[in-house]
User: Which sequence fits this backbone?
């Protein structure tokens, strides 16, 4: 039986004294920089370009703090009609990794808005908060469609929650209701975590990154902070046009198969090494 105490156990060595000093120095710099960004947001946040790019800068600084290296495979399609981006979902780290490339508005459940710290950051990051119930589905659909139609880049995790990293969960077709019978391009992305402290990630190390089920957030964050380095890969797949599908279910199934195939392939290649 696995207890909560040893659930987060890892064979990766803890930080050395020098590593600790470096991390806390970076943490001080990160805290000061974040405070400055918040001040800028309060003073100049109504300027559209600043409002869009401040979250990107914050995400870049956060990746620097956690020593996360991101490899890009493929090309990002940022054409006007390519406003919707999707990917598999493994961890809260997915958001700063994806959000560090260009301005995105993440779609999040409404409960996140009231979370301490995370809720504040999500609001500053211009997240679109939705209620996952049928009675409010029409309003939620229009909220996302309005953002897309105005040229905003919107990001959705169609799984609706995080997985354990060993597979891609079933996509929810409701994630695509806003683009059903519309003329938009969707770029699917596969996010994959490959190494921790230079060690290839296996299923026993994956819970250090993947945050899922009833995992406690605090011990998970603590373990994450003790890592020296993290390597992630973003695989940008060919965009698809929503007009090529009869309905959102066909679109959803196509994208799910596409992402699952590439993720399974990346997982197999890493395990084979």
Assistant:
């Amino acid at each position: 039986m696995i207890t909560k105490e040893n659930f987060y156990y890892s064979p990766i060595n803890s930080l050395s004294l020098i590593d600790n000093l470096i991390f806390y120095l970076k943490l001080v710099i990160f805290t000061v920089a974040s405070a400055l960004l918040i001040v800028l947001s309060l003073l100049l946040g109504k300027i559209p370009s600043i409002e869009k790019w401040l979250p990107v800068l914050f995400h870049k600084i956060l990746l620097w703090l956690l020593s996360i290296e991101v490899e890009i495979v493929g090309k990002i399609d940022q054409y006007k009609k390519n406003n919707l981006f999707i990917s598999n979902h493994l961890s809260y780290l997915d958001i700063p990794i994806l959000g560090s490339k260009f301005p995105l508005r993440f779609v999040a459940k409404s409960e996140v808005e009231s979370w301490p710290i995370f809720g504040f950051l999500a609001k500053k990051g211009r997240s679109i908060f939705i209620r996952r119930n049928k009675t409010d589905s029409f309003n939620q659909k229009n909220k996302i469609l309005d953002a897309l139609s105005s040229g905003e880049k919107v990001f959705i995790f169609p799984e609706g929650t995080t997985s354990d990293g060993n597979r891609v969960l079933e996509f929810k077709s409701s994630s695509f209701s806003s683009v059903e019978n519309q003329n938009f391009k969707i770029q699917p992305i596969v996010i994959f975590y490959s190494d921790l402290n230079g060690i290839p990630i296996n299923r026993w190390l994956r819970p250090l990154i993947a945050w899922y089920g009833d995992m406690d957030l605090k011990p998970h964050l603590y373990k994450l902070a003790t890592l020296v380095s993290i390597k992630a890969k973003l695989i940008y797949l060919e965009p698809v046009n929503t007009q090529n599908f009869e309905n959102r279910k066909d679109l959803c199934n196509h994208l799910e198969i596409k992402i699952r195939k590439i993720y399974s392939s990346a997982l197999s290649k890493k395990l084979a090494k």
About this structure: The radius of gyration is 19 Å.
